[in-house]
Specification:
The protein is an alpha+beta fold. It contains seven helices and 17 strands. It has a five-stranded antiparallel β-sheet. Strands 1-2-6-3 form a four-stranded antiparallel β-sheet, with helices on one face. A hairpin with a 6-residue loop joins strand 16 and strand 17.
């Protein structure tokens, strides 16, 4: 299966150093005015080269829609979105053809595809492929916005610098940590990390508000399983937890259970340890989850590796332009991809039909 989604489907094409990357979205409701400015705004959030603490690859990342749109509205056919690659320097990767980067997919790409693999820039396993994820996801996010469903992703932590309270729009902070003091601390940390030639990981938290209860299907199409599948499609994501996650394993049932209550005629829960999901379906409480993003494998420190041809020990020092904390630019990817998954589940459950009608149980 080379696509994401059940009713609303997403597939990708292109590679990091090819002519372009892009996405194909099938099943989107017909007659929806495509908000190009909205999509471009999220592309800008993800785009490299915006600050000194992100990759200095300079890409415009302008989205071109070449099918699925007629007079500005979705026409019912698959939506093809293309983003050109304009700032490619493939020479940086020549050494990596035979000497895989530790922690990167160079080795597994070689094992699977051999000498035919596309290795420049990581090929189609590059973080560059998150650009079309954002383009497709932003389209879905704009649709959910119109239904009053709000999705917020932000950097919870970078290294040991942790955000305890959201104090503004994450996109107003270059580290995406929405706290002026913690943003400053994280920026200083990243500058030091860059000077040392190293990288560092981060945690991204997401909150979804306004979802009706009952979204999601039991077992194989649960909210958790569908979101998890999408999140692990983002390069460098290594862990996910919903609600209190692993902390629940240390709690008693009397502590972990969320007691029910009624507010303004709606059944809700007094607490939200389970992250707004029970039995794979939404409860009407905010859906909350966290993901862990590992440090960027491409670092400027000398690393031990093995030459793929000679099978002998070798060393590499990665050249090129790489993020000291790739998690920062993953924030809009997580936010937009979450929207795509939730819109698919809402269509699957009959909350939204093929013609854009919102039906079934009333939205909160």
């Amino acid at each position: 299966m080379f696509y994401l989604g059940n009713v609303l489907k997403l597939s990708l094409f292109g590679s990091s150093h090819g002519e372009s990357v892009g996405s194909l979205v099938d099943g989107f409701p017909v007659g929806y005015k495509i908000p190009l400015d909205y999509i471009q705004k999220y592309m800008e959030y993800r785009r490299p080269g915006n600050t000194i603490i992100t990759s200095q690859r300079k890409e415009e990342d302008v989205v071109k829609i070449i099918s699925g749109m007629h007079n500005g509205f979705t026409d019912g056919s698959p939506i093809t979105m293309i983003i050109e690659n304009k700032n490619v320097i493939s020479s940086y990767y020549e050494e990596l053809k035979e000497n895989p980067r530790p922690g990167h997919s160079d080795y597994t790409l070689y094992v699977k595809y051999g000498d035919f693999r596309n290795y420049e820039g990581g090929g189609f396993l590059s973080g560059r492929m998150t650009a079309p994820l954002v383009a497709a996801g932003a389209l879905a996010k704009s649709y959910l916005d119109s239904l009053g469903i709000k999705i917020t992703s932000y950097m919870k932590s970078i290294g040991e610098v942790t955000c305890d309270e959201i104090r503004g729009d994450p996109y107003n902070f270059e580290t995406r940590i929405p706290d002026p003091e913690k943003n400053s601390l994280a920026t200083s940390l990243l500058v030091d990390i860059m000077k040392s030639g190293d990288s560092i990981g981060g945690r991204i938290d997401t909150i979804v508000e306004g979802l009706p209860p009952g979204v999601g299907e039991p077992f194989f199409n649960s909210v958790e399983s569908e979101i998890s599948r999408a999140m692990f499609s983002i390069p460098a994501v290594k862990a996910i937890e919903f609600g209190d996650g692993f902390t629940l394993s240390k709690m008693k049932g009397s502590e972990a259970n969320d007691p029910f209550t009624v507010l303004d005629g709606h059944i809700l829960t007094k607490t939200n340890h389970n992250g707004g999901i029970l039995g794979g379906m939404t409860t009407g409480m905010p859906v909350k989850f966290s993901i862990a993003v590992k440090p960027t494998p491409s670092i400027h420190k000398k690393q031990d590796t093995i030459n793929l041809i000679s099978k002998e020990k070798s060393e590499i020092t990665v050249k090129g332009r790489h993020d000291p904390c790739v998690a920062i630019r993953a924030v809009p990817v997580v936010e937009c991809l979450t929207a795509f998954v939730l819109m698919d589940l809402m269509m699957m459950g009959g909350f939204i039909d093929r013609y854009g009608n919102v039906r079934g149980r009333s939205l909160l």
